[in-house]
Amino acid sequence: QMIQFDGSYEYWFESRGPKCCLLASIDDATNTVAQGLFVDHEGVFPVFEFWQDYFLKQGKPRSIYLDKLRTYYNNHGSTKDDEEMLSQFQRAMKELGIKLIVAHSPQAKGRVERLFGTLQDRLIKEMRLKGIANKQKANQFLKQEFLPWFNAKYSRRPLKQANLHQKLTRQEKKELVAILSRQSVRVVQNDFTIRFENKWYQLLKDQPVTIRQKDKIIIEGRLDGSIKIRIRDKYLNYKPFLIRPKQYDHPWIIAAKQEPKPKTKQKTWKPGPNHPWKRYPAIQTHYSNQIFLN
User: Fold this and answer.
1) Known SUPFAM superfamilies for this protein (predicted)?
2) No. of H helices and E strands in the chain?
3) 209, part of any domain
4) Domain assignment of residue 260, yes or no
5) Cα torsion for 228, 229, 230, 234, to the nearest 10°?
6) Residue 212 belongs to what domain range?
7) Which of 237, 254, 271 is the last residue in one of the domains?
């Protein structure tokens, strides 16, 4: 099952609101609009927000067909200035096992391009009649009214009725917020600080794993605005600072916290049934019954 995905910038609210972007996905087999979302721009976080909602509700498609944009796909030959060969979107889809098919021209994405052409006519007119002028109301209208009507009118039956979406596994659901995060690699400084987006993060001494100076760590910028720092699949404890914290004496490494072992009571040793003490009982001497001669 292949899903075509793209975004379209337009004055969707005409003169009633600012220009914004509509993200949309369409099923290549049925012409069904699987999901739509109005966002400010076609960036990493809006795209991840779109797909997080999609995966949780509908599962994973086998493949996604998309435009050759830097947000979604980095071609190593065309992005020499980028330190990472893979874009955030490509990395995330790879972790989820979803194949990406890249279109090199708008004509290659025929269905989704025709969809936007239709929406720029019908959807704009419908929102004009309802006086919709912001993304929040537009998304509500899109989900509850427009897309159900649109799909009933324009979608078609597939040749095979089977839904080829795969449900997220329990582990994938647990890790989805981390997978759909903006990830960056940083190096631990000599004072165990990390700089990221003009902020400093001081690693604390209490950690679940041993950390050394110059270790490479991954910083996750998540959709809820939180920051997570991890190394070797362990999340680290830190304190954020606007400026670099004052240096103090640091160890060469921050060792992992060792949990104290619980004290166990020593059991009194008892000989087994085959022990010589049990097999050969002690010979008792009754001195009271003996006669001693001087």
Assistant:
1) Ribonuclease H-like
2) 7, 14
3) yes
4) no
5) -60
6) 181-254
7) 254
**Helices in the chain by DSSP H: which ranges?**
44-58, 88-96, 110-130, 135-141, 147-154, 170-179, 276-279
Tell me how crowded residue 13 is: count the other CB atoms within 10 A of its CB. 21
203 contact partners, CB below 8 Å, separation of at least 6: 188, 192, 193, 194, 211, 229, 236, 237, 238, 254
Contact indicator for 71, 7 with CB cutoff of 8 Å? no
Neighbours of 116 (CB within 10 A): 19
pLDDT in tens, 244-272: 887 655 666 777 766 666 666 666 777 76
Cβ atoms within 10 Å of 182's Cβ, excluding its own: 16
Domain tally for the chain?
A: 2
> Would you call 171 helix, strand, or coil by DSSP?
helix
Q: 62: Cβ–Cβ under 8 A, 6 or more apart, which residues? A: 1, 2, 98, 99, 164, 166
- The answer to whether 220 and 180 have CB atoms below 8 angstroms apart is no
Are residue 110 and residue 241 in the same domain, yes or no? no
